[in-house]
Design a protein that fits this description.
The protein contains 17 helices and 16 strands. It is of the alpha/beta class. The strands form 6 sheets. It has a 5-stranded mixed sheet with strand order 2-8-7-6-5, with helices on both faces. Strands 9-14-11 form a 3-stranded antiparallel sheet. It has a two-stranded parallel sheet with strand order 1-10.
């Protein structure tokens, strides 16, 4: 059949509150023109993030009811541990309340002043945890990944030559290398198995641990099945297991590809590092068999990690993003191509070329999306990743100015996405009316979460 349907039935629904344009103007103003500060009930379609926003299955909910809430050694932990070990092959499985908690523990051990952590592209919380430790987060995306208009199969790859040369120049100060799969900051683009394998080879050559940021591992594995020669006949589970086999450990926000609303883990093989990690865990998260989570959360994660590998689900998931992207492309809307696994990324530089980076073109689009249609999205550009020159104070923009519309898993139907497509096209057709923004309050770290803005009149 040509029509790809949702591989699930809807058993419970949540009403959507509808607001008027006039109401939304006041809501956004009250929120300091920061979509993160808008009350969720005032949002019609919420594409702010795909993190923790999944709709859980009936089996996940039944697992929640069966969760063992013992403080130490709960049955739910051992089920969780078994599922993660079978998937990843790692020896030590350390639960945390979410991915950034796993990052905090990892970089408390490996970070520090004078250290450098290379990655294909670090996302915001990873970068923040690295920099909070005193280390420097280094992005080494492949050349194709820097061009939003270039169609290539694996634009999420790390540049292997740059990685090798960087380690040669800083080999005593590179404590580990990471790969983010899929590459969220670069448009949700996948990383090839060959690139993962070669990254491991380089790391082994210099005796440097290699970690995956694995929160969207299943989507990445499905892209490998679709696009990389030699993998069409393999199951997504087999591909995922091979990906993990090349790494020495991983961090994961279970709030993405484990289809849950809260949770994560740190997984690794090294006994000494695991001991250090568990000591930090006890102080910051909780006992090693619950790690800041309830037993019911561990049950839901274990079930979700099995459900996410269903290839009917992944086919529907990837096709939903592709469908949305193709409709926008057909209408002339500039997006990062090809569409990734979890989100559509509008190319704000081309969408609003009259707004300079220091006036945040992506943020302007985000605000107008909310005012026009009640859609909440997030800027991934100069607000999130822009910096200032320490000497001149001049704004230093990132390579790309993007707007991410992240699709919650199993939440919205095709008609919801058609509404989003219609709204984006209408805004694009009147793009000359978009205005820039400026900060009225700028936090010192992860500024996009709590910043306040005002439009430039």
């Amino acid at each position: 059949m040509k029509t790809i349907i949702e591989p699930f039935k809807i058993k419970s629904v949540e009403p959507i509150k509808f607001t008027t344009r006039e109401e939304r103007i006041e809501i956004l103003k009250k929120a300091g023109y920061n979509p993160f500060m808008i009350p969720a009930e005032e949002v019609i379609i919420d594409l702010l993030t795909d993190s923790g926003t999944s709709a859980m299955s009936s089996k996940q909910w039944s697992g929640i009811m069966d969760g063992d809430e013992s403080y130490a050694g709960a049955r739910s932990y051992y089920r969780f541990e078994k599922v993660v070990k079978e998937l990843t092959g790692f020896k030590h499985i350390i639960p945390t309340h979410q991915g950034r908690a796993a990052e905090k523990i990892l970089f408390s051990i490996f970070g520090g002043n004078g250290k450098f952590i290379p990655n294909n592209t670090h996302f915001d919380t990873t970068r923040a945890n690295i920099e909070y430790s005193g280390a420097v987060a280094v992005d080494l995306p492949c050349k194709e990944g820097n061009d939003p208009d270039l169609i290539a199969d694996f634009k999420g790859n790390i540049d292997l030559n740059m990685l090798d040369n960087f380690i040669k120049s800083n080999k005593n100060n590179v404590p580990l290398v990471m790969l983010t799969i899929t590459n969220n900051s670069n448009g949700g683009q996948p990383v090839s198995m060959e690139n993962i394998r070669e990254t491991k080879r380089i790391c082994s050559q210099y005796n440097i641990p290699f970690f995956l940021d694995a929160c969207r591992f299943a989507e990445n594995a499905y892209f490998i099945k679709l696009r990389e020669p030699g993998y069409q006949g393999k199951s997504v589970r087999e591909i995922a297991q091979e990906m993990f086999s090349y790494a020495d450990g991983c961090t994961m926000s279970a709030k993405k590809d484990a289809l849950v609303n809260m949770g994560g883990f740190l997984a690794l093989n090294d006994d000494d590092i695991a001991l250090k990690a568990r000591n930090i865990l006890v102080v910051t998260e909780g006992f090693p068999t619950y790690g800041g989570l309830a037993g019911r959360d561990l049950e839901a994660i274990a079930q979700g990690l099995n459900e996410v590998l269903d290839e009917n689900y992944l086919k529907y998931r990837i096709r939903t993003v592709e469908y949305t992207g193709q409709k926008l492309i057909n209408s002339g809307v500039p997006i990062l191509v090809p569409p990734g696994g979890h989100a559509i990324y509008l190319n704000a530089k081309k969408f609003a070329p009259h707004i300079p980076p220091e006036n945040f073109p992506g943020h302007s689009i985000v605000c107008e999306l909310y005012i026009h249609a009640g859609i909440r999205a997030v800027e991934i550009g100069s607000v999130m990743f822009g910096k200032y020159d320490k000497e001149t104070g001049k704004h230093i923009p990132p390579k790309m100015e993007l707007v991410r519309l992240a699709l919650p898993r199993r939440v919205y139907t095709q008609s919801h996405m058609d509404y989003v497509i219609e709204a984006i096209i209408e805004i694009y057709n009147k793009r000359e009316n978009l205005k820039g923004y400026k900060f009225t309050y700028e936090p010192p770290i992860l500024r996009h979460f709590l910043a306040k803005f005002e439009p430039i009149v």
